[in-house]
């Protein structure tokens, strides 16, 4: 519980090295708000010969430290360690998966696969700066895009978090609903071929040939624990400026699909292509999405393709948000449910028996009265 964030404390947002080119968007409290607390001794210290202390007082060092701490928080993550028990429950009462699974959903070209690479890059910078990209990103509109479900562990070779990249939504939300419902209720597995009703015979034949290596070895089916809804900010901006509201309507209809929500928890929204928009345009897109999807701006994460401190922080902030919400929605263990419901059922049965008791008492009194009356009437006759 608490995710080990106890050693972090909120202070002001450190200045971004890229703030001149892309100012941070107005956001809620996130990782970027967390920097190590100074012990107070440094205040008033004007001359400092100790290079370590000097480095700490230097703003860029603060940035590195806060980024490192945010990364460490995700690296240390194990499913179940951020559960906040509710009612009388505690961590052990929940059915915790071996890996917390996040599902990427979004229209074609929104940047789902690019997002997998962007997230991986945040950790690769420390682990293997020359590691190749993992997900196949579409180069242009001729590309097939992603047609098979692929899971990616975050960071590479770890076990805590798994992100599932999927085929893009079609332009027909009703067709998407069927497959989304299946993933959200029955689970999703690596290598699964995703077809739409609109795919013709040739397309399906080609997909089968492309996915031949997955055919005979079905991978583990994972329960989806939270959803990341990816949206291309550029398309939103174009839609705002035009009379055709088809794109926004499609986003709204899909986002509101009840199967994508966990109780009241709607998916986290990631906005891509921010590097191709000005600061004002990014704010405009964020406001429009908050309005259309009826979610607070804090649930919208503006993650452009750019590779800078600010972007890394938002990536980590988004991961933390998703994991926290996934953990809040882990289901309870069956034996706990049986135990809890068993207790309730027992109490209910007892109450009924007590009720029966009263009925029995009344019946006995009634029968005694009848017997008495019969005897009295016998004597009289
Ligand atoms: N400039 C820019 N291009 C992006 C960004 N995200 C994705 N792209 C590009 O958009 C195209 C579609 O991305 P892709 O990840 O394949 O979309 P998907 O269909 O949702 O998986 C690719 O050419 C990406 O390089 C971004 O944030 N900024
Ligand atoms: Mg893709």
From TrEMBL:
Keywords tagged on the record: Membrane, Transmembrane, Transmembrane helix
This protein's record includes keyword Cell division: no
Protein name: G domain-containing protein
Membrane-crossing residue ranges in chain numbering: 353-374
Record field: compositional bias (Low complexity): 9-25
Alphabetical list of Gene3D superfamilies matching this protein: P-loop containing nucleotide triphosphate hydrolases (3.40.50.300)
Highest classification ranks of the organism: Eukaryota, Viridiplantae, Streptophyta, Embryophyta, Tracheophyta
InterPro entries hit by this protein: P-loop_NTPase
PANTHER family xref list: INTERFERON-INDUCED PROTEIN 44 (PTHR14241), VWFA DOMAIN-CONTAINING PROTEIN-RELATED (PTHR14241:SF32)
Region Disordered, annotated ranges: 1-34
Statement: the UniProt record of this protein carries the keyword Nuclease: no
């Amino acid at each position: 519980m608490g995710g080990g964030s106890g050693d972090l404390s909120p202070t002001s947002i450190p200045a971004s090295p890229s703030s001149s080119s892309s100012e941070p968007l107005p956001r809620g409290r996130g990782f970027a708000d967390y920097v190590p607390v100074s012990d107070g001794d440094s205040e008033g210290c004007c001359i400092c010969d100790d290079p370590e202390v000097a480095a700490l007082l230097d703003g860029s060092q603060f940035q590195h430290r806060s980024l490192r701490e945010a990364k460490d928080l995700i690296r240390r993550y194990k499913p179940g360690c951020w559960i906040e028990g509710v009612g009388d429950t505690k961590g052990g009462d929940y059915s915790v998966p071996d890996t917390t699974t996040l599902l990427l959903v979004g229209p074609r070209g929104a940047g789902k696969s690019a997002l997998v690479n962007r997230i991986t890059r945040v950790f690769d910078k420390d682990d293997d700066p020359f590691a190749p990209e993992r997900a196949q990103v579409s180069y242009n509109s001729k590309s097939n895009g992603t047609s098979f479900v692929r899971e990616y562990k975050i960071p590479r070779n770890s076990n805590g978090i798994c992100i599932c990249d999927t085929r893009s939504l079609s332009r027909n939300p009703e067709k998407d609903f069927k497959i989304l419902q299946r993933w959200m209720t029955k689970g999703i597995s690596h290598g699964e071929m995703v077809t739409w009703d609109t795919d013709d015979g040739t397309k399906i034949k080609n997909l089968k040939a492309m996915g031949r290596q997955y055919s005979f070895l079905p991978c583990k089916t994972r329960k989806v624990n939270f959803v990341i809804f990816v949206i291309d900010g550029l398309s939103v901006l174009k839609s705002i400026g035009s009379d055709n509201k088809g794109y926004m309507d499609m986003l709204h209809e899909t986002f509101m699909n009840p199967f994508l929500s966990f109780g009241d928890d709607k998916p986290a929204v990631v906005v891509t292509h921010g590097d191709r928009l000005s600061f004002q345009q990014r704010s405009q897109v964020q406001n429009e999405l908050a309005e259309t999807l009826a979610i607070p701006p804090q649930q919208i994460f503006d993650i452009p393709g750019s590779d800078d401190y600010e972007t890394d922080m938002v990536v980590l902030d988004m991961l933390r948000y998703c994991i926290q919400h996934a953990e809040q929605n882990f289901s309870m263990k069956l034996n706990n449910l049986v135990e809890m419901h068993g207790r309730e059922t027992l109490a209910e049965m007892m109450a009924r028996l007590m009720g029966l008791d009263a009925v029995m008492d009344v019946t006995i009194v009634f029968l005694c009265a009848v017997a008495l009356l019969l005897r009295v009437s016998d004597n009289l006759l």
